[in-house]
Structure formats: C-alpha cells, structure tokens
Amino acid sequence: MSHVVEAVVLDIEGTTSATGFVVDVLRPYARERLGTLLAERADEPRVARALAGARTELGEPDAGPARIERALVAWLDEDRKATPLKTLQGVLWAEGFARGELVPHFYGDVVPALRCWHAAGVRLYVYSSGSVDAQRAWFGHSAEGDLRTLVSGWYDTANAGPKREPGSYRTIAADTGIPPDRLLFLSDHAGELDAAAAAGWRAVGVRRPGEPHHGQDLRGHAEAGTFDDVDVVGGGA
Fold first, then answer.
1. Fold agreement (2-17+105-234, 22-99)
2. What CATH number should be reported for the domain whose range is 2-17+105-234?
C-alpha cells in the first residue's frame, strides 16, 4: 500500500533504532554521571529547571541533590517518562555523542529511506519520549553523518504530550500545519499507533525482530518489517 503523505513522523526506540542500545548503553551511561551532573552543575539553566521539576514531581520542595539523584535513578530503572529525567539524560547523552564516547544506533534501512523520502519532498519529524535535546544529538552524530538537516521538527512528551494520547498527535498536526490524514506515523507500539489513528493520522507498525514489542498485536494497523517496506509517496501541496 502506498502512503501519499506530506510528512513522516518517526518514533526512535524500537523503530529507527534498537531498544537494546538505549537499555544497555545509554541508560548506564547516564546513571553513572547523574550524581556528578547534579553536584557540579546545578546552577546551569537546564539542570536547574530539571531539579525544580524533580522537586515538583516528588512533592518535596526542599529536596537536595542526593535525594533527587536517588529519585532520578529509580525513575530511570523503571523507565518512567519523567520530564526532569529526560532533560538530564539529554544533557549527558548530547555531551557523550559530541565527545565521541557514544555513537547513536540506527537500523541499516533507516538512513537511506530517510534520505530518499526527504529528497522526494516528504517532510520528516521526530516524536520520541526522549527529550528534544537528546533527539537532536542522536540525529546529529550518527555514524553516517549529521542527519539533522533531514528533519523539519522535533517533538517529545514535554512539548507535545504523552505518546498514547490522541491529543498529542493533534498538537503536532496543528504545529506542523499539515492535515492529519497527510501525516504518517511509524512506531513499534500499538498504543501509540492507536492514538495517532484516533487523531486522524495514518499509522504503520514497525516490527523488528528482537525488539520488545515485536510480537505485540497491532490491532489491524498496517505493518512493516523495515523502512524498505514502507511505500511513501510525496503528496505535498
């Protein structure tokens, strides 16, 4: 089935990139460095905002760095989509990518497809639970070069909303100015596909062997094993 669309919106974890890279490489990297970041750089604006956000989420306005570190590590271990944690992870990962200590993972079919779609006039956006800073760093330091020029916009749960809520997809559609039925969302999670479809989007489930949601019932959504199986046709005005 061909998808005549103006834009493709990309999930990252399990879709463009392996969940195992996040779990086995990125999270331990952040875990080891959170304490130092909080202790030595608490006055930096992004870190200070994250600290304030963590205190609000905890309901503990006087929580110190040690208490916040314990909370952040607990949230990290449970994969909680907490904005303060995502912000601080984004800071650490961006610096790790920039120093070459980390190299983002992309499945082999992804980058050629993105370049092909972009060349055909299809706009590309990213919508991930990871912070926008982390997304930019991820796409900016790929093994195949800086991919940020392919991407027209970045969305996370802080600026768009939860990924399993239709309202988040309405927010993105309004921000891009693209009619919902001209947007295609690629994700490995049925709940996210459901939310996108409920907002009037097209949605395709990406099933990659070895990913946590590979065997999940996609509840009637179109499926693809790789991006090569997604037939995208540019349909811009």
1. no
2. 3.40.50.1000
Three-state DSSP at 213 gives coil
**Domain assignments of the chain as residue spans, ordered by start:** 2-17+105-234, 22-99
Pick 22-99's CATH classification: 1.20.1250.20, 1.20.1110.10, 1.10.720.60, 3.30.565.10.
Answer: 1.10.720.60
Contact between residue 211 and residue 36 where contact means Cβ atoms under 8 Å apart: no
Per-residue pLDDT of the chain (237 residues; tens, 9 = 90+): 789 999 999 999 999 999 999 999 999 999 999 999 999 999 999 999 999 999 999 999 999 989 999 999 999 999 998 999 999 999 999 999 999 999 999 999 999 999 999 999 999 999 999 999 999 999 999 999 999 999 999 999 999 999 999 999 999 999 999 999 999 999 999 999 999 999 999 999 999 999 999 999 999 999 999 999 999 998 865
Q: Measuring CA to CA, which residue among 167, 217, 210, 172 is closest to residue 191?
A: 217
